[in-house]
Amino acid sequence: MERLFKPRSVAVIGASRNPEKIGHKILRNILEFGFRGKVYPINPKADEILGLKSYSSILDVPGDVDLAVIAVPAPIVPKVLEEVGKKGVPFAAIISSGFKEVGNEELEQEIVEIGRKYGVRILGPNIFGILYSPSRLNATFGPKDVKDGGIALISQSGALGISLMGWTQTREIGLSAVVSVGNKADIEDEDLIEFLGRDPNTRVIVIYLEGIRDGRRFMEAVRKSEKPIVVIKAGKTREGSRAASSHTGALAGEYRVFKGILRQVGALEAKNLEEAFDMARALDFLDPARKPVLVITNGGGIGVLATDALSERGIPLVRNGLEKFRRVIPPFGSWRNPIDLTGQAKVEDYLSALELARDSDAWILLLYCETAVTDPMELAREIERAGIKPIVSMVGGERTQEALRYLNGKRIPAYPTPERAVAGIYALYRGVRFGAKGNP
Ligand code: COA
């Protein structure tokens, strides 16, 4: 898979002259994201596209090509794929729709056979492309940019994957890779997990999954992954499963069985997109560990909500060595975990409590309700300066949102509600079986 993610040269077959067309947008994204290798537009009707010499066929390209991105109508795909094979290109990403997902099994089988004949591995068809930030490769027709980070996203849904590229950007979520797998005619999630699970630029893998073909192989790949894996399973219900089948032709399978598989191999299941990225954010910024939680708050209510959420997820709270916090608590506060600094808490009070918590072998969950006595941005800056990495939840208005963005920008996981912060802690607590010290 190395060459798929780190190609030295890319050809775009169907690189249209028309800026509105998909083939044109992919070529533009490759150039604008800053790909440093060679780029070859292929279009029999053009001499030059976006300032690059265009070739009639990939067979006319003078140098080697590592990745061919194919964006021509489905009926032409076998012909251009033959040429890709003859050229000796190891990977083809087939953007084109019109295969198994619309019942055209024969055409899909035909391209699989051409791929096999020439040893071309096929990503797709029916995909939006592939992005890998470390290579500055954005061979997608999604946004031209994403925020750099350690989360790799594998998506069986095209439109959803594309939309998440923009969605993550507005939430300070950084991506190492985005891969659209579409119909999975050849390359499966497992092949990608094998690469990303060992990739030094990736810290966590998020997979939007409708169905898997080979449960055993999937389990093995997840088990071997050095990086935690968060799965969003779609098609859980009978109706959802029917929708999945007409979407990517996937067999969604029995959800209960799938859930069991995930549990056995230690993958985390997220209820929805938001929870998946809440989990992934924590795993991107911090190393997983099975530690109890120390809650520091200025609000009793959110302290209770956080405690409920922790307890529901089976995460213990620190119960010993709490007396020292008495010093920083007003007489009407509580020093029993949650450590309640009360609504009058100032930035200094948070810092004193954080200092006392510094050496504890616990996750620190820092909760804040916006009050007029403590400015959220000032608190955020001081948290960062303290050099301790808590998991933060701040509830409040515009200034609080700014503080959340600031903290996430500094790789301190910060969330708008306590329950979402607890989802992050859960991932850190449960993600421990992967690669971390002291694996159970
Ligand atoms: N080799 C290279 N380029 C060729 C070619 C060949 N053999 N034959 C034609 N072309 C060129 C065309 O001339 C055209 O370029 P031009 O606009 O400069 O003339 C370009 O390839 C594209 O072909 P066109 O027929 O205009 O197709 P299109 O751009 O309208 O549609 C797809 C192509 C792949 C985008 C479309 O068929 C498709 O599948 N769309 C759905 C994609 C999708 O949603 N995927 C799933 C994502 S979630």
What would you note in describing this structure?
- By secondary structure, this protein is of the alpha/beta class.
- Helices cover 38% and strands 19% of the residues.
- The chain is built from 15 helices and 19 strands.
- The chain has helices spanning 2-5, 22-32, 77-87, 105-118, 158-169, 189-196, 215-224, 238-248, 255-265, 273-285, 300-312, 347-357, 376-386, 398-409, 418-430, and strands at residues 9-13, 38-42, 48-49, 52-53, 67-70, 91-94, 121-123, 129-132, 137-140, 148-155, 175-180, 204-209, 229-233, 268-270, 293-297, 339-340, 363-369, 391-395, 414-415.
- The strands form four sheets. A seven-stranded mixed sheet has the order 9-8-11-10-12-13-14, sandwiched between helices.
- Helix 7 runs parallel beside helix 9 and helix 12 runs parallel beside helix 13.
- The protein starts with a helix and ends in a 10-residue tail after the last helix.
- 50% of the residues are buried.
- Mean pLDDT is 92; it is low at 435-440.
- The structure holds coenzyme A (COA).
Briefly summarize what is shown:
This protein is α/β, with parallel strands linked by helices. The chain has 15 helices and 19 strands.
Keywords:
single chain, 440 residues, alpha/beta, seven-stranded mixed sheet, five-stranded parallel sheet, 38% helix, disordered C terminus, binds coenzyme A
Terminal CA distance reads: 30 Å
Average pLDDT for all residues: 92
Query: How many beta-strand segments?
Result: 19
Strand residue content: 15-25%
Structural class comes to alpha/beta
